[in-house]
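input
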Amino acid sequence: MAAEFLKTHGIDLQDEMSSVQFPSTISPNSHANQTSNIPTSDPRKARISYRKINKILNVKLPCRNPDKTWDVLIHNDTIASLEPHNPLSHDTTSDPQILNGGKAFLLPSLCHPHVHLDKCFLLSDPKYSDLCIEKGDFGEALSLTSQAKSRFTPDDLLRRGRWLIEESIAAGVTCMRAFVEVDATVRFKCLEAGLMLKQQYQHACDIQICAFAQDPLFSGETAAEGRVLMEQAVQEDGVDVVGSTPYVEADEMQMRENIDWAVDIAIKYGKHLDLHLDYNLDGSKEPMVYYVIDALKKRSWTQNKNIVLGHCTRLTLLTSDQWYDLNRRIWELPISFVGLPTSDLFMMGRPSEPNEGSERVRGTLQIPQLIKEYYLQGTIGINNVGNAFTPQGSCDPMSLASMCVAVYQAGAKEDAELLYECISTRAKAAIGSGERRALEVREGDKTDFVLVSTNAYEGGRPRQTLQELVYDPPKERRTLHRGHMVHLETG
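output
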């Protein structure tokens, strides 16, 4: 399907991929020290270089004394040993496989558990300059995005998708769940672009593709066609996740049909499930999360796949007793909640126009509280970047964590560590791409890391702890994926 569809738009998939000159020794299980060129239709040339690293010297490690630095020995893309740094024991100038960390923090790499690949940066692209925000509400965002989707082309989708992926890698992201829409308007355009980008960047970032139904599947003239297209998309090689948006349906009965259908399709084809759910602050509406849990239990969800529930802003109105009840209902189901503060705060909790100065509720899931008090699984994500749903923000999860110090009023040392977990290890675990664990770097760990400088500039104010990095994230970072340093160059 991919090759035939793209060919009708002037893009030859075989030619594109043959021009991606990955190192000859790189295979899905073997990564070497060479350079690969990523093809692009952008005027800007893009290049990704990979340098195999066997040893990292003089780095700070989380959960350890910040006054000490360490040397990390790597073998077969895993940490073989951790030793206190000896500044006299190594000469790094002659060996390209030895990396001097320069007292930077070596941290588990970052993850986007929820990001929309196809509609990113619409506000930055001259092609869509006429689609400007005026009201800034959810209805306008849907309308502007729908108009933009009618103009999507493969070249356009690849260009903006590359922007998001490359900026994310530069920030330290080595794993993401990318939503691509499938419906009667775009059909497979977004999916094919997403699959091509997944393949092109496979040695720099692990990209899960979620075939996503933003439009209704049981209400409206194109609902039946949408279900057919979605089921076709889910069967495509490289699609990892089934996603849908029950709240866009016309009534509660159709919302339930949407949930049932998505659960059934995920089970039928052995996929993860990801639902945009309960995106409101209306206390008179029964949360649909209860129906999701019942649907999963009714079908005895036992497959080794995870369920992620995004937004869920209605749940911010639950009492403590209701949260404990929700924990009891979920019990052993592999459900994680993902808070999306940049989008939720922009969209939710708006007072009516005559009351613009009145109190504004936060309207985003209190993720640290979910984890610490109610023992639920949670994470945070950037969701949208540069479009009418979320015009502000960047591709940097550390900037999101920093913002969340204020959003969640989470300023303690333990809070900062938890927020970092929510953009790293907890995020990976939520989407089934790693284990849920603390931040300690250990022997035997896979070498997906980000080196974060402790200084904003040479000789500048040092950041001595992980807590300080979350408060005020430095921009200078180096990304390591599967034992290779990934470097993005432009020119």
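quick obs: The CA atoms of residues 351 and 358 lie 7 Å apart.
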